[in-house]
Amino acid sequence: MIMQYSSRLSRFDSAVFFELNGVKQELREQGKEIIDLGIGSPDLPPPPHVIKALTEAAANPQEYGYPISEGSPFFREAVATWYANRFGVNLDPVSECLALMGSQDGLSHLALALVDPGEYVLVPDPGYPIYEVSIHLANGIPYPMPLREENGFLPDFSIIPTEVALKAKMMILNYPNNPVTSVADRAFYEKAIAFAKRYNILIVSDIAYSELAFDGYRPMSILEIEGAKEVSVEFHSLSKSFNMAGCRIGFAVGNSAALRALAIVKSNIDYGIFTAIQKAGTAALLGDQSHTSKMSKIYQSRRDALLDSLARIGWHIPKPKATMFVWAKVPVPLSSREFARELLRKTAVAVVPGIGFGRMGEGYVRIALVQPEEKLKEVAERIEASKIL
Ligand SMILES: Cc1ncc(COP(=O)(O)O)c(C=O)c1O
Predict the structure, then answer these.
(1) Is residue 117 part of a domain?
(2) Ligand 1 centroid to residue 208 C-alpha, Å
(3) Which of 14, 100, 180, 206 to probe ligand 1 with, by most ligand atoms within 8 A of CB?
(4) Cα-to-centroid distance, 252 and ligand 1 (Å)
(5) Tens digits of residue pLDDT in 256-301
(6) With a 6 A CB cut-off, is 104 part of the ligand 1 pocket?
(7) Max Cα separation, the chain?
(8) 182 and 145 in a common domain
(9) pLDDT tens digits for 156-167?
(10) With a 6 A CB cut-off, is 234 part of the ligand 1 pocket?
């Protein structure tokens, strides 16, 4: 048969993330060892008590029935307890906490629940690619909010045209940010909430990296701000905070009407998260929280190992306060795509071209700190030897 793909599918173009796979394959065939700093998949294990909770629950035959789509009461209560302990935010576990198969599950389905064709969604540019894809899924229109270095990589609400703001249904914020690594403070969130209230826009705050922060910095939740729940939902992931990326567990909290709509969409798509995984997630949220600071220390040392050694060879990159990434200006007169290709060919080091995250990402590459310190130091040695700079 002739397979005619939907026109929607053409919007799901992630080619830039995969176009270097051919080069990687060639290098492997030549016996070269690739240092892959591309995809942000955590390389560290979950805490032992999480693995124990998962294995014990998985060994129990009673855990194999269909789970509850919105999440088991024990998991939603654990989410509420974690938010209260971590951010001092009170949540109702039933109406204000929703379990997700990773935050990607919720981020990709929310627009289907809330956005009608032709409505705008304000998205960060550069930004995590699923934000835009989710809007196309709902036939909405993504409206990019440029994140510029001179504004601390925060969106400037004053340049959003009134007619766009009036037709906007949601605004996505992501701090600490992937890919640019910037962070947001209370004053910024207060401005965002005032803007959202003026134009009746739902703020979707993605805090996937809230627990990976350095030099004593502690990211905040938008829900810490008085009245935020009226206009905000927040998404969090256990993938990075507890190294549980493969378990597919996360959650959304905040505005109950928005969460109800998301729960309706999801109840037609999935039947919830394997109960044993929810038990492991509960162990992570309620157990010893020192794991996250230990993990942050590891990423901080990696950050320093990489950026100090790159600075010694003349590539100066500002140190991020949070996330597992470095957002680096391309140090030579090449596009981000060309530079990533050149770097891979000459040094077997893989990074992601900034253009993959949106038009404003051009001129940068994202480097994920997903290798041990020795490997990150070796990156600088390889770059120096290659004379690419
Ligand atoms: C900014 C951001 N949000 C959300 C996610 C999705 O995480 P998960 O679906 O594993 O919870 C990621 C994953 O890399 C991310 O970088």
Answers:
(1) yes
(2) 6
(3) 206
(4) 13
(5) 999 999 999 999 999 999 999 999 999 999 999 999 999 999 999 9
(6) yes
(7) 60
(8) yes
(9) 999 999 999 999
(10) no
* Cβ-contact 239, 250 below 8 angstroms: yes
CA of 103 to the centre of ligand 1 (A): 6
- Is there a single domain that holds both residue 216 and residue 351? no
Give the separation between CA 162 and CA 159, rounded to whole angstroms: 9
Domain that holds residue 259: 65-286
How far does residue 29's CA lie from ligand 1's centre (Å)? 32
pLDDT digits (tens, 9 = 90+) for 94-110: 999 999 999 999 999 99
Q: Is the CB of 134 under 6 A from ligand 1?
A: no
**Is 114 found in the same domain as 251?**
yes
Please work out whether the CB of residue 245 comes within 6 Å of at least one atom of ligand 1. yes
What is the side-by-side strand order in the sheet with 168-174?
Answer: 97-100, 250-254, 232-237, 202-206, 168-174, 120-125, 141-146
Same domain, residue pair 89 and 203: yes
Answer yes or no: is the C-beta of 125 below 6 A from any ligand 1 atom: no
pLDDT in tens, 44-88: 999 999 999 999 999 999 999 999 999 999 999 999 999 999 999
- Report, as an integer, the average pLDDT of 333-345: 97
Q: Is the CB of 40 under 6 A from ligand 1?
A: yes
Domain shared by 332 and 270, yes or no: no
- 180 shares its domain with 80: yes
Higher pLDDT, 11 or 288: 288
b/e code 40-57 from CB counts within 10 Å (16+ = b): bebebebbeebeebbeeb
Q: Is 72 in the pocket of ligand 1 (CB under 6 A)?
A: no
Q: Which residues on adjacent β-strands are paired with residue 329? A: 364
Q: Please give the tally of structural domains in the chain.
A: 2
| CATH number, position 300 | 3.90.1150.10
* Residue nearest ligand 1's atom 2 by CA: 208
The torsion defined by the Cα of 222, 137, 66 and 101, in degrees rounded to 10, comes to -40
pLDDT at 13 over 80: no
